[in-house]
Amino acid sequence: MNLLTVGTVAFDNIETPKGKAEKVIGGAATYISLAASYFVDKVSIVSIIGGDFPTAELKYMEKKGINLDGLQIEQDGKSFFWGGKYHDNMNKRDTIFTELNVLADFKPKVPKASKNAKYLMLGNLTPDDQLSTIKQMDKRPKLIALDTMNFWMDTAMKDLKKVIKKVDILTINDEEARQLSGEYSLVKAAKVIHKMGPKYLVIKKGEHGALVFHEDKIFSAPALPLAEVNDPTGAGDTFAGGMMGYLASTNKTGWEQMKTAVIYGSAMASFCVEDFSVGRLKGLKKSEINKRVKEFVKLTSFKM
Amino acid sequence: MNLLTVGTVAFDNIETPKGKAEKVIGGAATYISLAASYFVDKVSIVSIIGGDFPTAELKYMEKKGINLDGLQIEQDGKSFFWGGKYHDNMNKRDTIFTELNVLADFKPKVPKASKNAKYLMLGNLTPDDQLSTIKQMDKRPKLIALDTMNFWMDTAMKDLKKVIKKVDILTINDEEARQLSGEYSLVKAAKVIHKMGPKYLVIKKGEHGALVFHEDKIFSAPALPLAEVNDPTGAGDTFAGGMMGYLASTNKTGWEQMKTAVIYGSAMASFCVEDFSVGRLKGLKKSEINKRVKEFVKLTSFKM
After folding, report:
1. N or C: which end of chain B has fewer CB within 10 A?
2. Do B220 and A301 lie within an 8 Å CB cutoff?
3. Of A186, A229, A300, the CB nearest to B220
4. Is B185 in Cβ contact with A229 (below 8 Å)?
5. Given an 8 Å threshold on Cβ–Cβ distance, is A302 in contact with B186?
6. Who among B219, B222, B303 is closest to A256 (CB)?
7. Domains held by chain A: number
8. Are strands B143-147 and B119-122 parallel, antiparallel or unpaired?
9. What is the sign, positive or negative, of the torsion defined by CA atoms of A25, A28, A34, A35?
10. Left (φ > 0), alpha (ψ -120 to 50) or beta: where does B251 sit?
11. Which domain holds residue B256?
12. Do B220 and A228 touch (CB under 8 A)?
């Protein structure tokens, strides 16, 4: 099935305890689409870049089957540029700078050919742009997932709630789930958030894995303990891209598919953090992905 | 099989965001033995209390089959008394006071009848007392588990390493594993710690579950997401007690048993945090425990 994603395509400056990377490729839609491209042939992006974005990177994405018809290119503008520094505990980071550049006046435009996408992944962006994307679809996609963050809860909660109401899956971290719901217990938070709209709440916990809440059911996916974590940037987007890519490949949306999808998303995220930028998401083999998924099976199997 | 535990039997003052409890029953050996008593008939304690400890509580423990022959009672002394306050994030707490009282001059004495225990759980205590307990055994127990904390790493690392060398299982939290090994990656930390002695490293992550490292294998056990967490005090001890109690009930010590044991330990810990003090560990039914373990199966099951 075809998957559409909207989100940033950007440059990042990254500093982690393991090293630095300057003006490397980043952005939510970049990570999402690369991760999803390992599962489905038809992935398309709605985003914006400046004339400074390397053509070679766009060509690589197209080679991976990612359709860039919805990628607006402002030749005279500069691409969105974010700089961040991670603490020793790589679960925390500080934003060093944010240059919106061409993103400042971005209005998502879904190309005609992508308006029938059955799977829609709304990457972290203004709630207004996320909502506009949904509205441009020919009909309501089979499955809509939304990623967002505390920044939008602080500055645009009203708009955010409008989008949340329209989606099937919401992916946020544990602190954000608490902020959004006003409940400390994630079990209680999930009940509040389900009432806001999403029938699936996926709580991303970084090195502690992910929790999925659906009706009265809960699924806990671990993160794979790794010897080398070099850069957590984009792990959440990669997780979402792997999850939605897998779901689109099944053409189903049930609880069993959702759980397996979260494992695939976690496996993709485990690759992502091993290298800076999208380094590890390029040139992965399907056999490597399957091998890693098997590690998740081993990691969680026990006999009763 | 018979299980011996050494550790504190104490009073706690506890303040959490959910309420306060004053001078309630606590102590590592209390939680460990109560949790283990649901799995094995022969559990014995080596510890010390003052004349102020309620007889009714001792009688309850005996009723649960816990042998108190190794519990020294200083009629003129006061029991160990600890006060702690939890942050809004219940993963963190501050110690408000520590009154060692009779614990100050405690020397563990293993009763003759317990010297042949096949399973030994060394609860958090001075490394010196933990080592002394091992030395008093008739012969090396089949399985020795050690719980400790950063305080002993800061103040008695040399002694602590001597005990660590002699045990099969070490249970600590993630920060402590990093401190002990000097490695941030838990995968690398486990390799360092395995070389110190323990063939099993169990990393307790509170609401994020537990990780077990053994040779080149890893197992991830989730924590059960709960609607109500009232008091995390004793959850780590209860986890260890459930784990060792289950292992003792199997009379085995292999990887498969270890994984299942960690699930049982996690299930017992999930009861523990639902109420203050040992409230929830009293009068549990075997059927309740099995039902909860089934929730862990559901929580982690997925299809590939």
Report:
1. C
2. no
3. A300
4. yes
5. no
6. B303
7. 1
8. parallel
9. positive
10. left
11. 3-300
12. no
Q: Give the chain B residue whose CA is nearest to the CA of A223.
A: B220
Residues of A in contact with B187 (CB under 8 A): 225-227
CATH number at residue B141: 3.40.1190.20
Pairwise CB contact (< 8 Å): A185 & B260 = no
- Span B118-138, average pLDDT: 98
pLDDT block averages, 10 residues each, chain A of length 304: 96 97 98 98 97 98 97 98 93 94 97 97 98 98 98 98 98 97 97 98 97 98 96 97 98 95 98 97 96 98 94
By CB atoms closer than 10 A (0-12, 13-18, 19+), residue A22 is exposed
pLDDT at B58: 98
Question: How far does the CA of residue B258 sit from the closest CA of chain A (Å)?
Answer: 9
The answer to whether A302 contacts B260, with C-beta atoms less than 8 Å apart, is yes
What is the model's pLDDT at position A260? 98
pLDDT confidence of B88, banded at 50, 70, 90?
A: confident
* Among the partner residues A88, A208, A219, nearest to B208 by beta-carbon distance: A208
Q: For residue B89, what pLDDT is reported?
A: 82
